[in-house]
Design a protein that fits this description.
The complex is a heterodimer of chains A (419) and B (78). Chain A is an alpha+beta fold and 419 residues long. Helix content of chain A is 63%, strand content 13%. Chain A has a four-stranded antiparallel β-sheet. Chain A has a two-stranded antiparallel sheet with strand order 1-2. In chain A, strands 3-4 form a two-stranded antiparallel ribbon. In chain B, a hairpin with a 4-residue loop joins strand 2 (26-33) and strand 3. The chains are: A alpha+beta (419), B alpha+beta (78).
Chain lengths: 419, 78
């Protein structure tokens, strides 16, 4: 379980590691986009053809890395794979059970659509635009949550949705007006699909293969990448030019280091993100890793100063840069405010005599981050997260109260937390 | 793994938190409203280690009125 991997409270170096991992995840994501931008701009290649090639190189690189970290060694008297340090749920490269595999197929299907949209966009813009575009998914996730729970949005949620939406619109502005085709891709297939990817990945990660063991993030990456590539390739084949195979053969070697760079950096971004989640709260990790939104600007400007034209077309109008920076600030504010608004509570539960194990039932309630069965006066302790106290009551506590056999519930609202 | 639920004397919360943060096995400390003032998660290797922390750290911390220790039998986490 990932919980055994949490850092001690008092050791300062651990907090340094946590911030390094969370920010590093955002930096790696920026690097990955930068590699793709450089590849497309330095070698005059159709972004769709590059995407096809890069994604399959990424799959091979990922399988190799996961196969290497499947090697076992003895540590502290226990036989563990090298990948245990990356994800404590990881054992070896394996085919997953039917249910999580079905979730991954669904996740990979939508990721294929989203990735195709990304490669279409990367050909016409640069990292400073693509990175904020990707954050629009937060809006869809929020709206999805609100619709699923038939809930009214809070002020913070409305503020965040508007801030991110307006930010993305500003980033997508051009001297002639809005870049309508790009915005339609961003508002439609790219981020709607990403929202479904997040939904199915969450479902996969919460699935328990056997008591105490969850689906690991490394196998999740391998299998979802296989489905993603298959779906994306199928869609790409219909729009790829006739000479695509010859272009791939001709440019494979010159593009190889950039494709490997992109694959390794996105793999590291995912691992660092997963490791950071094991050390701190999701809201802080998401806020810190959102630094990728800001980094796109210096990467594009500095990169183009070093290798002119390699990092995309630089907008010469300073007013347009101001609009882009305003847009990025709005996106960042939207992300950080929604993450910072979370209210955490600890719920202590006592059950009546002769009640069976309700731990899985409690853990299945949306908003429950951690569920523990206890020995002592209390029977269960839950750590829950919601957007505000009213939602804690209506969306989580009322669901807990409906479970048969509960005798007493005590809610402690967390006013300060040390990790 | 164990949770320690604590009741704290009025005005002593910050001092107690500072003491508790020195315990290397404490992975999470939450200051809460409600029946308990502080909830701490300890990651210990065995009950002997839990006993050691309880007796030598928690019981010697000034400002703690009452504690309740709950050993985790099973934990599910995202």
């Amino acid at each position: 379980m990932s919980s055994v991997n949490q850092r001690p409270v008092s050791k300062r170096p651990s907090s340094t590691i946590f911030y390094t991992l969370a920010i590093g995840s955002g930096v790696m994501r920026t690097l990955s986009v930068a590699f793709d931008t450089v590849a497309i701009n330095t070698i005059d290649i159709d972004p769709i053809i590059y995407g096809f090639l890069a994604q399959w190189v990424s799959f091979i690189a990922t399988v190799l890395i996961v196969a290497i970290v499947s090697i076992r060694r003895t540590a502290n008297g226990r036989r563990q794979s090298l990948g245990y340090n990356l994800d404590p749920d990881f054992d070896r490269l394996r085919i997953l059970p039917k249910k999580p595999m079905l979730y991954l197929i669904a996740s990979g299907f939508f990721a294929g659509i989203s990735t195709l949209s990304y490669y279409i966009l990367i050909g016409s813009t640069d990292a400073s635009n693509v990175l904020p575009y990707g954050q629009l998914v937060i809006i869809y996730l929020l709206i999805g949550d609100l619709l699923a729970e038939k809930d009214t949005p809070t002020i913070i949620e409305i503020q965040s949705i508007i801030s991110i939406l307006f930010g993305v619109l500003l980033v997508g502005a051009t001297p002639g007006g809005f870049d309508i085709p790009s915005l339609l891709i961003v508002l439609g297939p790219m981020n709607v699909s990403s929202a479904f990817v997040t939904y199915y990945q969450r479902k996969t990660k919460r699935h328990e293969i056997r008591p105490g063991l969850r689906v690991d993030s490394l196998n999740m990456r391998v299998w979802s990448l296989l489905v993603l590539n298959s779906v994306m390739s199928f869609l790409m084949l219909t729009i790829m030019p006739a000479n695509s195979w010859q272009v791939m053969i001709d440019y494979f070697v010159p593009l190889l280091w950039m494709m490997v760079g992109s694959s390794v950096s996105i793999f590291l971004a995912l691992v660092m993100y997963a490791r950071a989640l094991g050390k701190g709260s999701m809201s802080i990790v998401n806020s810190l890793s959102a630094i990728s939104v800001v980094l796109g600007v210096p990467v594009t400007l500095i990169g183009n100063a070093v290798v002119p034209g390699a990092f995309g077309i630089i907008e010469s109008d300073s007013f347009m840069w101001i609009l882009t920076i305003f847009g990025i600030i709005l996106v960042m504010i939207g992300i950080v405010s929604i993450q910072a608004a979370d209210v955490r509570s600890i719920v202590l539960i006592k059950v009546k005599p002769l009640v069976g194990d309700i731990l899985p039932e409690l853990f299945d309630i949306r908003g429950v981050e951690k569920a523990a069965a206890l020995a002592g006066t209390q029977d269960y302790l839950l750590t829950i997260k919601s957007r505000n106290l009213a939602k804690t009551r209506t969306k989580i506590l009322e669901k807990i109260q409906k479970i048969q056999g509960i005798d007493h519930i005590e809610t402690l609202v967390v006013i300060r937390e040390y990790k | 793994m164990a949770y320690v639920l604590m009741e704290i004397e009025i005005g002593k919360t910050d001092n107690v938190v500072e003491h508790l943060r020195k315990i290397p096995q404490a992975t999470k400390i939450a200051v809460t409203t409600g029946g308990y003032d502080i909830v701490m998660l300890l990651e210990v290797a065995n009950l002997e280690e839990l006993y050691d922390i309880t007796v030598h750290h928690i019981h010697t911390t000034p400002g703690i009125k009452d504690t309740q220790t709950a050993v985790v039998e099973k934990m599910m986490t995202v």
